[in-house]
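Residues pack. Consider this:
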Amino acid sequence: MIVKQFKDEMTGLERVMAAVTFQKPDRVPVVPQAIGIARRVLGVSMSKLSQDPDVYVEAQLQLHKLCDYGFDSFAFVYDLSVEAEAFGQKVIYPLESTAYADPNNPLIKTVDDYRRLERINPRETGRMKDTIYGTERLAKAKGKEYSVGGFVYGPLGVLGQLRGHERMFVDLMKNRDAVIEALEIITPVLEDYAVAQIEAGAGGITIDTLCASKTMMSAKLWESIEAPYAKRLADTIRKAGGAVMLHNCGGAPYFEEQMKWLEPVGISHAYPAAGCKTWEEHAAIWGKKVMHIGAMDPSKIGMVWSEEQVMDNCRYFIDTFDGCNGGFILAPGCEFPPNGTLLNLIAMCKAAKAYGTNK
């Protein structure tokens, strides 16, 4: 057993490794999904954080210090428009909220534009280049003691940023061949991007598979459209030596289909899997099949609840997944709100020590 090789107090990296391999760590690992909120430690705007990789890295390091080094993993993740921006999509950078693709000026304006999409080099282009650079900085600063991961938005998600999701879904019904041609251009770029992050020091890559959920499309449609391309991406990550994880904050994510196609070691999610009505049912069915990262309600823990309520909710999830042989990481189901309270983020770290310690 891996755990027996560790010292009494594990490093963050050792805790995450133990969770991935279903060995109980000294305490439940914590991944607060703290992206935009980190800028509050430095007092900078979201627009500054979203466009300056050095500021982003410094914000993460200072947030870790503020939390008494209580969370166990880092990742350089600006937002979901990074890949689209590199392809040429116009992005809006609000002063105090998350950057987003301009919905009124999509790069792909017509069906013919799918076929005009050009392949880019992520190592040289836009904020993809920033992410590779920032991942390397985080890995050098924290990688010996803490987990450092990479992040890639899934192929269909990137295409939705370039076209607009509503228009893309219509095109899937009426002009599927054009959509497929664009996915053939996007996927190799994402493969190069993932490999570059691994070479920069990321131990694994999280693929955001938002479309693989009932709130986005049917399981059958996802399998016929994105699954083969997401599989190519996952296989490339493994070939490069990285672990494959997924993030899906959609309602009723398709665990069965994603496990079949992508074979992840862990899934970050906000809701129980399709077919499960409660977290208890989800834990009973899926808890020992794949490591879980989640799944607290971000808006409540960041914007609504008191510290005590946050700690109580942490305890609920720790207890619910306690029978999963250690394969659980405490986290929000999606990004901790960028304008949330830092006190509640710190409370998550406290709760892991108070309720998630294994004796």
Observations:
- The first strand starts at residue 73 and ends at 75.
